[in-house]
Amino acid sequence: MSLRLESVCKSYPLPTPLTELLRGKRRTLQVLRNVSFEVDEGELFVVVGPTGCGKTTLLNVIAGLTRQDSGHVFLDGKCVDHLPPEKRNVGMVFQDFALFPHMTVLDNILYGLRVRGKGREADGKVRDVVRELGLEGLEDRMPSSLSGGEKQRVSLARALVAEPRVLLLDEPLSSLDPQTKSSARELLLRVQRNTGLTMIYVTHDQVDVHVLAGRVAVMRDGAIEQVGYLKELVEHPRSPFVASFMSLGNVLQGIVESHDRENGITTVNVEGNRLSIPYSSDLQAGKTLSLLVKPEDIVVAKTKPETSARNVLEAIVVDLSLQGSLVKVITSVGGLRVEALATKASAGELKLREGEKVYLSFKASSIHVLGESA
Amino acid sequence: MQPPEAREARRVGRAFPLFPASMAILGLSFLALMFLAPLGTLVYSSLNPIYADPGLPQRLYDLLLSGDFEAVVSELQGYAGNPVLAAFQNEVLLGALRVSLITSGASSVICICLGIPLAYVLARYDFPGRRTLKTLVELPMVLPPVVAGISLILLLGPNTPLGSFLRQVGWELVFTWRGIILAQTFVASPFFVRSAIVSFEEVPVSLELAARSLGASPFKVFRSVTLPLSARGLVAGWAMMWARAMGEFGATIMVSSNVPGQSYTLTTAIYWMFWAGGIHQSIAAALVLLAVAFFVLFTVRLLVER
User: Residues 6 or more apart from A210 whose CB is under 8 A from it?
Assistant: First the structure.
């Protein structure tokens, strides 16, 4: 099933002092601002954003558990705004799993079928789901006696058995310990591939994004900052927020100084350092820009590289840490934190130590302009 | 629910015996003076009718000291015709017991049928005036029952518009057994509604939302999730409410008529029979109410503390 959201807005009332109420004002909290996106059939769509950015409200609106103030939700091209949740057939896996504590595991799983009056005919399907999710032998247990991972699988099974058109997952892994988390992630991917179910997965965890995502929407303060394939987001983040939230690299602030049309270069001043970026006539002198430089694009050297084609920054090494087979070099450029990556071999050759002066160099083309900052 | 801190606190208390000992002496003497003495006398006087035979306790005591147990037994056998026990065959008392059970049962039904929706709305929805409504619901807990009685008479009494209309229809409320039900419902309902609000509030909303997303209608969600999860609190609240209805006196005596065997409840029967000289019947009725009160409180404790 495909899903489309059209400029959905939602705000909640806040406690308003009587004096303002009398003047006809009401304080509200805008939780969703003009949210629009489309999810294709069989897609695993990830919505990522910091806690409190409106992700859960977004899912509630899609499931019909909250009514939006304005905008529309379409399932398979049909507007479902007027449908109550039980008629939308949108499944949901909750962050706290929301298992019914007074029912056994099996009764929990069967709930969606029973309330629709079809318990018997789905026996085979239930058995399949129970086996697929490794819940055999747990059928008669009560939810309170299950581990976190088991609870998560039961809540997934409960949603799947009801055969939803779209499955919404609200941070389903956030309360699991790291090992359970990664196996649960794999299981989820497998289920998605086997069933071809359209899923919307909400998370604040970037690991989830990198493992699961086809397409990603980055949310901030109730608005979608960017939607696209993970690759697009990583290569062309549209805003400083996307870049820093996705931990893509160093976000620098600089002021546009001058343009050099012939060499195709625009000069930007970052904390006293002149950086060359690809020429763009849109950038007016005096504007403040946000720039992204990815750690892997930075070359660390002990002596100043004699090259005009590259930007060079003088920096002090603040910290060194291992990151897999690479060494993460955290430096300070006049108080600004800049991260770079070096291979173990080159870090050893350079004999990098904390407190030493180094030169960071990178091509003009490896600077991404994230946009003007206020 | 009993918080784990409470249990922990009782365990820690044992480590400092001296202070608790003095507290215990004060506390227990308060309990003894205020409750155990009067209630103990009530029970004692039912078993040993001191009004009939003031010398009996002394004689029993002497016989027990002398170790002559056969004499004790024969002395007690002489009281097989205990007037309090005999009162349980009294028409007026049995009638009052029947009226009490029927009226308190009826007011239980009213409280449950109307109280559950009211409590659910107050627990789940936010609307202007919610706090005022909650206060109104609890008002009868602190309002003197006599005030409830006079309000009911002013609304439904024979000379009021509503009352005279009901009289023409043949459905008089005040000064009949129906009035007793109204009075009990008025006074006892907060005990149920308050407990129901708390029980509903304790059911996580996410469970209800999960059930909705699985295809259950609001009514089915209520029946299959909310109600079973709040059942303990509802039963506990109902038990308190029922005990309060059984014990209702102030409003009842104002709106009921004075027809022995028909419109006496146990409480008004105690009052009328006592002043009519039926001390034994009064004691018997009091014993029933004491048993009801203790049984209900104990059950509630079992339910709530699990």
Answer: A230
CATH number among 1.10.10.10, 3.40.50.1980, 3.10.20.70, 1.10.3720.10, domain B87-305:
1.10.3720.10
User: What is the rounded CA–CA span in Å between residue B173 and residue B178?
Assistant: 5
Per-domain residue ranges for chain B? Answer: 1-47, 50-81, 87-305
> What count of other Cβ atoms lies within 10 Å of the Cβ of residue A274?
14
Q: Which residue of A has its CA nearest to B219?
A: A115
Distance CA A13, CA B190 (A): 30
User: What are the tens digits of pLDDT across the range A185-219?
Assistant: 888 888 888 888 999 999 888 778 877 767 999 99
Q: Which residues contact A373 (CB under 8 A, 6 or more apart)?
A: A240, A253, A288, A289, A290
Tokens encoding A88:
């939308």
Question: The whole model's pTM is what?
Answer: 0.74
A263: Cα within 13 Å, side-chain hemisphere: 12
Provide CB contacts within 8 A for A1, sequence distance 6+: A41, A75, A76, A165, A166, A198
Lateral strand order in the sheet of A215-220: A90-93, A166-170, A198-203, A44-48, A215-220, A223-229
Helix ranges, A135-293 (H): 148-161, 178-195, 206-212, 230-235, 240-245
Q: Are A54 and A221 in contact (CB under 8 A)?
A: yes
Distance CA A367, CA A294 (A): 8
Chain A: residue whose CA lies nearest to B217: A86
Chain A 139-178, residues with CB within 8 Å of chain B CB atoms: 155, 158-159, 162
Contact call for A115 and B228, based on CB within 8 A: no
Predicted-complex ipTM score: 0.74
Question: Tokens for A160?
Answer: 């799947």
- Determine contact, residues A54/A170, Cβ cutoff 8 Å: no
Task: Number of A to B CB contacts under 8 A, please give it.
Answer: 67
